[in-house]
Amino acid sequence: MLVESIKLENFRNYGSLELEFDPGTNLFYGDNAQGKTNILEAVYLCGTTRSHKGSKDREMIHFDRDEAHICMRIRKGDVPYRIDMHLKKSKTKGIAINGVPVRKAGELIGLGNFVFFSPEDLNIIKNGPGERRRFLDMELCQLDSIYLFHLSNYNKLLLQRNRLLKDYGFYPEAGTMLDVIDEQLIQYGTALIRSRRVFTDQLQEIIGGIHSSLSGRKEDLTVTYEPNAEETEFGQKLQENREKDLRMKQTMTGPHRDDLGFAVHGVDLRKYGSQGQQRTTALSLKLAEIEIVKQSVKDTPVLLLDDVLSELDGSRQRYLLENIHDIQTMITCTGVDDFVENNFQIDRLFQVVEGTVERRN
Ligand SMILES: Nc1ncnc2c1ncn2[C@@H]1O[C@H](COP(=O)(O)OP(=O)(O)OP(=O)(O)O)[C@@H](O)[C@H]1O
Ligand SMILES: [Mg+2]
């Protein structure tokens, strides 16, 4: 798929902006705080309904305005689509596909696929399990709208359950209420565990080869899914731990406590990996993510690379750029020096200055 153009109105620091993208590499350069990341955020938001950094709708509307609009044109094969998004300060956003309003934001899922890569992603291996779960969820939600449905139901039930555990003594019916919640929690939780296992198996098949090339054939990487409770035992464990949960006033068992393990030759990279190893693994993970999208949806995703190149050494920069030349990319950086020095290809060059964008080639 390709993003052909985007139009912004009152989005972040943009009053009004219209851009046409090249199907290859689009480079946005400019000083800090000019609005480069905001463009990638708008593309990602319009494609996935969410900001890559989890910003709320009202935070993305221009400070002085009450509403923002984004209109993005994409193309899948020969078929053009137009996505309109209307952000409001205190109401949920409105979305239309080809002029037809959609009832739920989830209906946009699967129309386009976007991979966002920011410098923070390079820390995914060394940071806590929450970020690795977020990675799993973001990927699976994009690839599978049923997963999104399961996840949001699970999260809602978990919240209800934890609230009930806190107020347990105040409700005479609390035991029955907990039974009802648990039954559904087990159903949705089990589905999440199953999907995550399938996804991790797919990831494992792909990431090994990528990581081996990136590390100069020196490292053999394995990724393992580490569920807090296995698919078949989640229900039973939840029941067994009920007393403990009541004491702790929170749910201690379930996929909200899962993790992904990364190991090279049996050594856990989360704990013992060097900085370089951890960052290379994070890069492998992103490249594997692109590959999984290609295989799963039989289409190429659009890659949004926010300020990542300056964080990588020359050989990793080269590897990354060589491996994404067949997909549309939007890259931000402060200067174009790396590109010029290394003869990296730029198909369209834009300079960003204080919420305005000028084409420079
Ligand atoms: N809701 C908003 N309304 C108006 N301006 C905003 C809003 N949100 C953020 N900004 C402004 O947008 C600018 C930041 O834009 P952005 O993050 O895209 O910069 P950048 O060019 O990527 O910079 P860097 O190189 O530091 O990453 C800041 O000046 C910020 O004040
Ligand atoms: Mg930025």
Structure report:
This protein is an alpha/beta fold. Helices cover about 40% and strands about 25% of the residues. It contains eleven helices and 15 strands. The protein has helices at about 35-50, 55-60, 130-145, 145-165, 175-215, 235-240, 240-250, 270, 275-295, 315-320, 335-340; strands at about 1-10, 15-20, 25-30, 65-75, 80-90, 95, 100, 115, 220-225, 260-265, 265-270, 300-305, 330-335, 350-355, 355-360. The strands form three sheets. It has a six-stranded antiparallel beta sheet. The protein has a six-stranded mixed beta sheet with strand order 8-12-13-3-14-15, with helices on both faces. Strands 9-10-11 form a three-stranded antiparallel beta sheet. Helix 5 (about 175-215) packs across helix 6 and helix 5 crosses helix 9 (about 275-295). The longest helix is centred in the middle third of the chain and has 41 residues, at about 175-215. About 40% of the residues are buried. The model has no long low-confidence stretch (mean pLDDT about 95). The structure holds adenosine-5'-triphosphate and magnesium ion. Magnesium ion binds near residues 36 and 306.
